[in-house]
Amino acid sequence: MVYNFRSKRKKSTQNVENNESAPPEVPGITDGKKALYHCNYCNKDISGKIRIKCVICSDFDLCVECFSVGTELRPHKSNHPYRVMDNLAFPLICPDWNADEEMLLLEGLEMYGLGNWNEVAEHVGTKNKSQCIDHYDKIYMNSRCFPLPDMSHVMGKNREELLAMAKEHSETKKEVDTVGGSSSSKISSGAVKRTSSKAPSTDGPDVVKVEDRSIGEKKPRTSGDEGVSVKELSGYNSKRQEFEVEYDNDAEQLLADMEFKDSDTDAERELKIQVLHIYSKRLDERKRRKDFILERNLLYPDPFDKELTLEEKELCRRYRVFMRFHSKEEHSELLRSIVEEQRLLKRIQYLQEARAAGCRTSSEAERFIDQKMKMGIEENSRRAKEHSSLDSKGLTSFGVLDNWDVTGFLGADLLSEDEKELCGEMKILPTHYLNMLQTMSVGILNGNVTKKSDAQGLFNVDPNKVDKVYDMLMRKGIAQM
């Protein structure tokens, strides 16, 4: 007989067996669905009852009867540590949510993440997606005790008192819904707007204002926001204090398949310990870089950059490589000195041009400089218009050229003259050509590529280009007809 080793918690619309042992139902708490638990050994329904949960075995539950006789079911052993899971079918934080549903909600969020609300709702079993989002929004995100829920109204109350509160809440809710449905048609929208606009503010100095932390939707930007911030582009999450893509993001792959075994020799064990040391150093470097970014406040725009022109910003960008050798104050002073030097040199150049143009006084030189700057601005705008008109006609800078000269591109020194001509004819970069060449060669040596049609399925490019690269491999003797 084959048993399922995982605890079978599933949704069901049927009545629960042994209704006499089930917890008393409170109207408005459940939607007719039950998240059921079953004993992994006798398969008996133990939802709503005290059950024994194994700490070592993943998702393994036993009823009290099977646990009392020391039942073992591979891989579970009777000497495994365990937890006694009590009956939590009573409201705790919210009258509409039982304590076990709260636990399932948090467990689902831990397993699937904040964005996967469909999976979280399926894990809870008795609530749908919108109910889970609204409940987490209201009870957790907008709580006065964020990130914890506000437990002040339930502190010190026993289970019977909580059930009574939930029952009273459900009855009150029904009465409000009935009265509200009959009277809502009598209230005009204009009266509602006037009432809301004239209502005095009740927020006093002692009232704690809770920030609106809505889940699943982004807040609209204010007029002061200027596009996407550097912080958003970098993918940094300030609450987790980590980036979406960390520095040396593949460092963990070094340990993915490593395992310490009793059969390891001393040399193998020493090698694995060295690998751990290498991994630790890579983590230290990741942390050092992250701390450097946060310490220098590089996730936010520098106010000093707002005073600079594009040319000056590009000049400062070249000196970023020296930032790690300076303190924050030293690097700021260096940039200010460089910008000041650049402005003085440009001023000297303008004055020399003004003197060459015949200016004899400072006022004449100023007029000459202003006129030259205006001409430069007009020239830049004219070039921008010409460039936009070319783009609107579908003529790009690359499209105008009939043939590429790939001599100066990366990887061109690895190609023969014929291959350079082929890259220029097909208009692909040498690095892309080398990648195609390597992929095809590996496929040919493995026997996966025997003809041109096989090679075409390896790339998402024009099949004619793939055929030309395949022909080049044939001329080299790697591919066959």
Report on the structure:
With 481 residues, the protein is mainly α. Among the domains are: 10-163, no CATH class; 249-293, no CATH class; 412-476, Arc Repressor Mutant, subunit A (Orthogonal Bundle). The protein is 47% helix and 4% strand. The chain has 15 helices and 7 strands. The strands form 3 sheets. Strands 4-3-5 form a 3-stranded antiparallel β-sheet. Helix 2 (99-112) packs antiparallel against helix 3 (117-124) and helix 3 (117-124) crosses helix 4. The longest helix is centred in the C-terminal third of the chain and has 31 residues, at 362-392. The two termini are 57 Å apart. The relative contact order is 0.04. Residues 1-35, 182-227 and 395-401 have low confidence and may be disordered.
What's the pLDDT, averaged over the residues?
Answer: 74
Sequence stretches where pLDDT stays below 50 over 5 or more residues: 1-35, 182-227, 395-401
Q: Largest sheet, order of strands side by side?
A: 4-3-5
Helix count? 15
| Structural class assignment | mainly alpha
Our measurement of the CA-to-CA distance between the termini, rounded to an integer number of angstroms, reads: 57 Å
Describe the secondary-structure layout.
Layout: E1 10-12, E2 34-36, E3 51-54, E4 61-62, H1 64-68, E5 82-85, H2 99-112, H3 117-124, H4 129-141, H5 159-183, H6 189-198, H7 230-234, E6 236-237, E7 242-243, H8 266-295, H9 310-318, H10 328-356, H11 362-392, H12 417-426, H13 430-446, H14 452-456, H15 463-476
Antiparallel strand pairs: 1-2, 3-4, 3-5, 6-7
Helix pairs in contact: 2-3, 3-4, 10-11, 13-15
